[in-house]
Amino acid sequence: MVTGVASFVPHRWPALSFLRSTPAAHSARVRSRRIAWHDDDVLTLTEVARILRCEEDTVRRIPRPKLPARRGPGKWLLYLREDVLAYVRNLPIAGLASDVSPEPRRATMKAPTRPFDPAALASQMQRSSRG
């Protein structure tokens, strides 16, 4: 019983060996061909998103003055690792005393302009239903 293309490809045909590889291995080879260089100090958009633990669209929405990016080959966005770390260091720390307002917010209600009159409300409702 034949289950896939890989069973049709003899091992003596090295030109068709890509048919025997897994999809993950194939995509890794394609990525390695796209990026001929690898420098740990230069990050792609995907790598920055992994570092910040967010989606790529979120990284794209960060203003350029806060997180500078450069256009690389093929219009890729490239980031320097030191810029990403500086962005993280400059983020406000949640829970600091400076973030907390001095007084807690209280729900405010408007004072009634006139006292509640159920008879007046009933007559108003009757008038509106006739009209």
Verbal overview:
There is one protein chain. This protein has 131 residues and is mostly helical. The chain is built from five helices and three strands. It has a three-stranded antiparallel β-sheet with strand order 1-3-2. The longest helix is centred in the last third of the chain and has 13 residues, at 118-130. The mean pLDDT is 75.
Work out the oligomeric state of the chains in this entry. single chain
Mean pLDDT score: 75
Cα Rg: 32 Å
Which outline best applies? elongated
- Tell me the strand order in the biggest sheet: 1-3-2
Helix content: 25-40%
Number of DSSP helical runs: 5
Strand content: 5-15%
Give the low-pLDDT segments. Answer: none
Number of strands: 3
Q: How far is it from the N-terminal to the C-terminal residue, by CA?
A: 81 Å
Sketch the topology as an H/E string, one letter per element. Answer: HEHHEEHH
**How would you classify the helix and strand content by structural class?**
mainly alpha
The largest sheet, given as strand count, sense and whether it forms a barrel, is: 3 strands, antiparallel
Care to give the gist of this entry?
By secondary structure, this protein is mainly alpha-helical. Helices cover 37% and strands 7% of the residues. Strands 1-3-2 form a three-stranded antiparallel β-sheet.
